[in-house]
Amino acid sequence: MTTSHYIAGHWVEGQGSDCISVNDPAQGQPFAELMAASVTQVDQAVAAARNALPAWKSTSASERAAFLRGFAEQLGQRREALVTLQMRNNGKPRHEAEIDLDDAIATFGYYAELAEQLPSKNRTVPLAAPGFTARTRLEPVGVVGLIVPWNFPLVTSAWKLAPALAAGCTVLLKPSEVTPLIEQAYGQIADALGLPAGVLNIVNGKAETGAALSNHNGLDKLSFTGSNSVGSQVMRSASAQCRPVTLELGGKSAIVVFEDCDVDQAVEWIVAGISWNAGQMCSATSRLLVQDGIANALLPRLQAALANLRVGNPLTEEVDMGPLTSQAQWLKVASYFATAREEGLQCLAGGHALDREGWFVSPTLYTDVPKDSRLWTEEIFGPVLCARRFTTEEQAIAEANDSRFGLVATVCSADLERAERVADALEVGHVWINSVQAVFVETSWGGTKGSGIGRELGPWGLSAYQSVKHVTRCVG
Predict the structure, then answer these.
(1) Bridge partners, 21 (sequence order)
(2) Average pLDDT, stretch 350-358?
(3) CA 20, CA 96: separation in Å to the nearest integer?
(4) Which of 41, 52, 74, 300 could form a disulfide with 37 if both were Cys (CB 3.0 to 4.6 A apart)?
(5) Could you list the residue ranges forming a coiled coil in this record (predicted)?
(6) Is 177 annotated in the active site?
C-alpha cells in the first residue's frame, strides 16, 4: 500500500521516514504497511486545501449538500468491506462495526440537511439606532486540520469532516497511525463523486506528521480527538498561532445506580457502558456508584454477566467483545491490573490478560475501590470497572462530580423526577437516563473540565466550522 495519501485530488506515495505497520489485534500480527507522509507532503496538502478554498466556499449550499449525500450513499455501497476492515484492524465485533458505519452514514445525511438550511441563516438584524441596517453572514472558518483517533475511525472523522464540508471549509485529515486504512475510503469516495481537488486531503503518519499539521501556519482551525497528553500539545500549537481549536479528550465517567432500579436492566446498562469497544472509549462509564440498598443484589449479577461475556476474534467467532486495538493499549491495561494487585483491590471478575494469541484482556470488576486509587481517578481505556457504594443522592452527585474529567454520565432509577434532577446536577456534557450509550447526530457531543473544548454533532458541530460576519450600513 504505497499510494496511501490523498493530496490535491491524487493518490501519492508516502515520503516520510516512518513505516506504519497496520495490525490485526486478534492475532497480534501486521497485515499491511505504509510509509508516512513527509513534512513537505503536509505542506503540499495544506497548500492544496488553501488553493481550493475560494471556489469551494463559493459553491451553493445545495451543491455541498449533494456531495455530502453522495458520501453517505457511497459509504453504504462499501458496507461489507468497511465493516470487515473495522473488525480486522480495530477488533470490533460485527454488530459494533455495523453501528459505526451507520453512524457515519447518518452524520453525512444530517449535515447535508443543515447545509441546505444555511442560506436562511444569513439574516437582517433589527437595530435600535435609526439610520442604520445590519445583517449577519455565517462563513466557513477556512482551512481546517482534523486529527482523529484509533478507537472510532470512520465515525469520528465523519463527525468532523461532514460539518466542515457543509460549512464550506476545505480539509486536511490525519487518521491515527494505528488505524490508517479505513479513512482512505473518504478519498476514494471523493474521487468517485468528483469532489474538487484539494477540498479533502488525507495524510497518514505518526507524531512527526501530526506535529507538522498542528504547527502549520496555513491552517485556520484545528479539531482534535484523542488523549489529554496529545491534546495539550495540540492546544499549545494552536495558541502559538492564536487559532481556534476543538478538543474532544478523555473521560472517567460515572454510572449511578439507585436502589429502586430494576437489577437486570441496571446490569445491562453497566456492562454496555464498560465493554463496548472493549472499554476503549472516552465515554466509558468506568466508575460505578451503586446505592447501598441494591448493591448486594446487583454486584453478584454484574460479576456473572462480565464473566459470561464472549471474548474473541470477531472475524472467526461470535463474540460480545473483541481484543484491545493495539499492543500499547494492551500493555497499558495490564499495568493497571498490576497496580490493582499492588493496591490490594478486591477483584470480583477478570483482572488479567487472556492467555491466547492477540491482545485480549478479561472484562474486569473491582469493588470498594478507594477514591484515591489510580484505577478510580485515571482513564484506563479498557474494560475495567471500579465500583463504590453510596447512601444518599447528594453523596452520589458529589462523588460523580469529583473528577478532573466531565464528559458523560448515566443515571439509573425508576424515579424519573429524581433521575432528571441528578442529570441536571452532574458536571458533564451528556447524560443518559436508563439507557445504553445511544448517541444521535442531532445531539451535541463534548465535555466539561478536562474532557475538552467545544462541541461536535448537532448544529453545534456545524457552528464549530463557521465564523460570524456582521455587516452594518448607514442608510441616513
Answers:
(1) 33
(2) 96
(3) 25
(4) 41
(5) none
(6) no
Q: Name 18's Cβ contacts closer than 8 Å, sequence gap at least 6.
A: 35, 36, 177, 205, 206, 208, 209
How far is it, in rounded angstroms, from Cα 187 to Cα 202? 7
Cell triple for 123: 439574516
pLDDT score at 454? 96
Please state, in angstroms and as integers, the Cα–Cα distance from residue 405 to each residue in 375, 378, 439, following that order: 14, 9, 19
Find the helix or strand (DSSP H, E) in which 472 lies: strand 466-474
Look at residue 150 and tell me whether its pLDDT is greater than 90: yes
Looking up cell 496529545, which residue turns up?
230
| pLDDT for 124 | 86
Say what the pLDDT of residue 393 is: 98
**What is the strand order of the sheet 384-390 is part of?**
346-349, 364-367, 384-390, 287-291, 254-257, 408-412, 430-433
**155-167 vs 61-77: helix axis angle to the nearest 10?**
160
CA distances from residue 398 to 262, 321, 421, 424, 425 in whole angstroms, order as listed: 23, 32, 13, 13, 9
Percent of the chain at pLDDT exceeding 70: 99
Question: For 72-105, b where at least 16 C-beta lie within 10 A, e where not — what string?
Answer: bebbeebeeebbebbbbbbbbbbebbbbbbebbb
Whole-prediction pTM: 0.96
Instruction: Identify the active-site residue in 116, 177, 183, 248.
Output: 248
> For the stretch 170-194, what's the b/e string if a residue is b when 16 or more beta carbons lie within 10 angstroms of its beta carbon?
bbbbbbbbbbbbbbbbbbebbeebe
Q: What percentage of the chain exceeds 90 in pLDDT? A: 95
What distance in Å separates the CA atoms of residue 63 and residue 424, rounded to the nearest whole number?
40
